[in-house]
Records
---
Amino acid sequence: MMELFNHIGDIFGSGGFFEATLRIGVVFLLGTLGELICERAGVMNLGVEGIMVLGAMTGFTAVYLLGNLWLGVLLALLVGGLAGYVHGVFSVKLALNQHVTGIALTFLASGLAFFGYRLLTEHADVKTELPKIEPFDSVAIPLLSKIPGVGPVLFDQTPLAYLAFLLVPVTWYVLTRTPAGLALRTAGENPLCLESAGISSHRVRMCAVVVGSMLMGLAGAYLSTSYFNAFQPGIVSGRGWICVALVIFANWRAGRVLVGALLFAGVEAVAVRIQALGIDAPSQLFLMLPYVLTIVALVAVARRASYPAALLVPFRRGERV
Amino acid sequence: MSPALAVAAALLVSALLVVAAGAPVVASFEALIRGAFGSKFALLETLVVATPLIFTGLSVAIAFRARLYNIGAEGQLYAGALAAAAVATGKLGLPEGVLLPAALVGGFIGGGVVLAAPAMLKTHLHVDEVVTTLLLNFILLLVVSLVVLGPWKDPLFASASVPVLADAKLPRFTGTRLGYGIVLAGAAACLLWILIHRTGLGYRIQAIGSNRRAAEFHGISATRTILATALISGGLAGLAGTVQLLGSTYRLSEGLAIGYGYAGIVVALLARLHALGVLGAAVFFAAVKTGSDNLAREFAVPPAIADVIQGLALLFMLAALLLVNFRIRRK
């Protein structure tokens, strides 16, 4: 334990720690914002894990076969939206159990991803060498990136990372300051009220699930085109499920998603770095840390959690309440 | 009616994937069926895969009946295997005669405790159980990794524990890889059916699951019912790991039963949470898996097609139920 204290400087001191946190934080940020948009409209999307795998596969293979990074991102968004549409058809239009739909979707989407990956990279000899792409380069913002200390850490990111951080205020603004956001939140609080205002709850919920799932697809594409430069089976490895926890941690607020995503990413970065330092303690204990802390955090916020009132409640038009 | 419809629809859609993979459709499905049921060996292999799936399927079925959304059968499976391994490898120094029953009981308790914790968080502190049970999956897999690569490591193996003692092994049917775990699984399904449909606890579980408020007005304690459900559900998942350890792998490892816990969710839902239906659903799920492996060998169709078929079957099952429940009856 003392040894750990001696290494605190190594873990947090260098700029590398904050860079690593931001880099992995983007995945949680995009996935959690996507889940947040779905849940604020009253639809829990447990397909997030599968959609992220599918997005990662789509993004990667599109770039691998077509050679255009942005085309890969676009296709990942599209495929994510499509997966969201499937979720919506079952959970919103057919009013089926949202947990079950989401789990089925995770099976389906990750199955499709691994199936598609094997087919599309068939000619590549996967056994000897993993197919790789040239990932997104980081883009330094002129002037801002020259600020000593924070500049190189904050303002020298890949394009998708900037997009992710930009999406936080955008999501907040759209959800809380626009008519569309009001409709979306009402669909999650009281769909009947929305109907009485002449707006279709189903349509609003469908839109929310599709848009939210697009962000999940984007999170996957970020993993395979920016964070890594390849697609492998363990690429998402449960990060999608973490996003479901982070939404609760963030108490369904866009701003707090940023805090939650970066906190979790920070813990993950610490765990990886402690492991890399070769401190004489089992690495599994540190890898466990993020999950244990998430449970602790969930317990801490549980009392104050303000669930959208109609979360998990399907809306059936014309049904007596 | 609806399960058959759903399976047929799922196979129909996955035929598109077979076409995409450039394999002949009819011959591929023949290969799939042959791989699952075509020979005595194939059939037995399917049952070997089905054994732990029956347990995890039952685990999820009873939990979902009480609306305890247990997504953590995977973690409970590993917790059960961990506890059973502690007994069966002789770490506790129990006499040889009681090793097998003690390991089974230990596995049940190990799994039960791991679900009881998030269930208590749910009943007492209102912490959402979907997320906590899910996170525990990762934690328990790491605990198993810790033990298997650390104190219980077999020096001759890269990542497996020392083997269980001979007295703790579940016997196998002579000349096969199929252990008596399948008998235990069948017995568990029957017992669970009795529990759900013929006992007071089963009645309370169903009451809490269908209308918690009404059940509470009726004097049923939701807290106690949910905790009891959690112990049984977690215990059944723990038995999945125990049976896998004592009847199939004989060594604890991270790869003991990867994915079987999550698969239990699909199995339970395909069975419409019906205890005896779980038997059929688990065999179907296992058949898709062993069949797809054969499909991959014969026609180079990626084995991930199994996940696709299973996911589709579940979605179509839900849709089919809807059609059956809301069908127009003509007089």
Note: Residues 192 and 320 of chain A are 10 Å apart (CA to CA).
---
Amino acid sequence: MPQPEHLDFLVLGSGEAGKYLAWHMARSGHRTAVVERKLIGGSCPNTNCLPSKNEIWSAKVADLMRHSSQFGISAGPTRVDMAGVVRRKRDMVDGLIATHLNHYKASGAELIMGTGRFIAPCGVR
Amino acid sequence: VAFDDFRVVRDNLAGGHRTTRGRLVPYCMFTDPPLAHIRLSENEAQRLGIPVQIAKLPMRAVLRSLPISETRGFMKVLVEAEGDRILGFVMIRAEAGEVVAVVETAMLANLPFTGLRDAIIAHPTMAEGLIALFANVPPSEKRG
């Protein structure tokens, strides 16, 4: 059995509320760690709030192109390059993850990739 | 502005005593990107010797700017040096005219800047950037 490690704060899940709390506590001088199963930064930057708005924006561009004549603009036939749409989104998400990792580094909070669960009122494995 | 001129004249014809003095007048220049501004600017504050606290936020720090590729530009706010009233605001980038209306509402209501700083604003919107912008206002000793 591994030796227990003592922390001031341990956050389960690196989503919005948890990550800001962890960065704040670490910056205030507390020994802090975050356990994250998969998505660094949680759903918002990875799969939900921002990637969806990114694709919706590409859809808006396609929509404007298709109706460009309404605006007095003549464009050629429009084709959606889904690989390009996904690439643009992916680049944004990669940039956001890099920003998150910088925040962990700068704040001193440790990011642990894995699953945590309570084994005692104040103990997590 | 002209519409408000109409309201002033209408109300005065009906026996009111309104003037056009002291009106809060924002503007939005519809360039691409747009530039929107209200009340005191940094230059004006310097020229008039008005002590202010200034906070700035690059547009890249506003999450909404990322999915719509509108990451260049900034928001800037001027707050009373020894108080919490908002004295002026400027933004250059997408939706600047809409965001300035949010700040104008706070100014009209005499809301301290902390009212916007501590608000929950729909995510991800450009106006949400006001939370981070106002969190950047340097602390004032008198404000505490």
Note: The first helix of chain B runs from residue 2 to 13.
